Structures are given as structure tokens and as C-alpha cells.
Design the sequence.
């Protein structure tokens, strides 16, 4: 009876399986002979190796997950740094506007001195004194001409600064200032000087009454920070 095709295929499979088993047995004998490891111990080592491989795969997966989390954290941190930088710039602008930061730049220096004109008997001594209204007019003219920072005798002029006379001195930010009065203003020097020297400007009247007045330009003038505090009793933030 001739063998069928199926029988031939089964015979080939069995032969291959026998060869594989024989190769594995010979490989184990060679390993046991060369490493002198018992067969039972060799199976244990194989199991441990497989466990270590699974553990390595798990660790690699965890590392990949942590790297993804780190990338997200770095992206969020970069966004936070951008937000913080924007807030820092906004805060800096507000501090400059409030006058609590020292500043420097181009501008003008205005010097006002009492008049040296001698008084005649019966003349009012106030006629030869620089008054707070004179300094106030100079400061208002500078603001109107585009000044960005102003100081009088080293006292920063801010939104709450008031000027008043106390005897022969001027009170500014609760500090007494004595003549000569030196007003430093930062801005476009040409525009500031033109406003001060206008025919209707505050210096024209002082010069008419022989008050020594001098206006000079500067490219690197300094205005100090406001040293006082801000106290609001009645004003509240609102819209």
C-alpha cells in the first residue's frame, strides 16, 4: 500500500520535531557540560531570565511614560515662564508709572533762584522769593510737554505729590526744600525746553521780575525713586 500525501507531510513534521528535540537535548548537554549547571537549575535560570526580561520591558515602559510626563511638565514650565515674564514686564511698567523706580534718560534741568533784586523800604519780601506756585507751574508745564519723570531737589513728583509754602521754604512729599530749586525732567529735551521758554510759559514772568532762571539739556539725567508711601482712605478700585 502506497503512503498518502498526508502521511508524507506528517512524517516530515515528526522528523523535524525529532531533530529539534534532539538539537535542544544536545544544546542542554553542552550547556550543562561547559557550565556544569544541572538541568533543574538551568530551567530555574531560564525562568529568572524570562522574569528579568519582563521586568526590563515594564521598566522601559515606565521610563517612556515618565519621559512623556517630563516633556509635558517642561512645556507647561515654558508657558509659565512666558506668563511670568509678561507679568514681570507689566509690573515693571506699573512701577515706572507709579514713580517707585529710579529712572534715567534725556531731558532738561531747570534751576530757579530767588531774585537778587534789592528791596526798597516798604517792599514785600515775597516779591523776591520763588514760591511753590512758581515751581508748580514749571512742573505742570513739563508734564504737559510730555515729561515722563520729574523731581524737585531730589524729591520724585508722583500722583499724590503736593506742593505748599512753609515760610521761605517749599514742602514737597512732606519734606522741606530750600532754594535754589532744581527741577529735573526726563523726556524730549527739545520739546520740554520749548514749552518752558514759550512767551506764555512760567519762566517768562520770573525772568521779567529778574529771577535767575536757567534751563539746560542733558542726555543722561537721573530721577530718583519716590521714597514715600501711598495711603488711600477714600479711593477704591472700581469701574
Sequence:
Amino acid at each position: 500500500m502506497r503512503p498518502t500525501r498526508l502521511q508524507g507531510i506528517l512524517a516530515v513534521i515528526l522528523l523535524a520535531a525529532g531533530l529539534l528535540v534532539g538539537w535542544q537535548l544536545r544544546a542542554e548537554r553542552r550547556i550543562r557540560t561547559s557550565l556544569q549547571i544541572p538541568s533543574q537549575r538551568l530551567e530555574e535560570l531560564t525562568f529568572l531570565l524570562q522574569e528579568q526580561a519582563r521586568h526590563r520591558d515594564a521598566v522601559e515602559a515606565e521610563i517612556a511614560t515618565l519621559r512623556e510626563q517630563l516633556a509635558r511638565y517642561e512645556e507647561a514650565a515654558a508657558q509659565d515662564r512666558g506668563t511670568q515674564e509678561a507679568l514681570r514686564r507689566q509690573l515693571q511698567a506699573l512701577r515706572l508709572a507709579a514713580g517707585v523706580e529710579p529712572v534715567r534718560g534725556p531731558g532738561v534741568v531747570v534751576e530757579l533762584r530767588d531774585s537778587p533784586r534789592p528791596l526798597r523800604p516798604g517792599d514785600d519780601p515775597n516779591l523776591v522769593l520763588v514760591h511753590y506756585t512758581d515751581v508748580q507751574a514749571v512742573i505742570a508745564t513739563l508734564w504737559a510737554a510730555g515729561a515722563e519723570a520729574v523731581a524737585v531737589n531730589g524729591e520724585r513728583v508722583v500722583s499724590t505729590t503736593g506742593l505748599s509754602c512753609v515760610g521761605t521754604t517749599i514742602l514737597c512729599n512732606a519734606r522741606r526744600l530750600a532754594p535754589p530749586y532744581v527741577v529735573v525732567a526726563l523726556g524730549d529735551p527739545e520739546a520740554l525746553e520749548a514749552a518752558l521758554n514759550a512767551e506764555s510759559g512760567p519762566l517768562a514772568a520770573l525772568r521779567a521780575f529778574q529771577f535767575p532762571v536757567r534751563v539746560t539739556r542733558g542726555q543722561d539725567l537721573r530721577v530718583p525713586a519716590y521714597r514715600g508711601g501711598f495711603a488711600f482712605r477714600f479711593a477704591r478700585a472700581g469701574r
User: Anything to note?
Assistant: The first helix runs from residue 5 to 35. The radius of gyration is 45 Å. The helical segments are 5-35, 39-98, 132-144, 189-196, 202-208. The chain is about 50% helix and 20% strand.
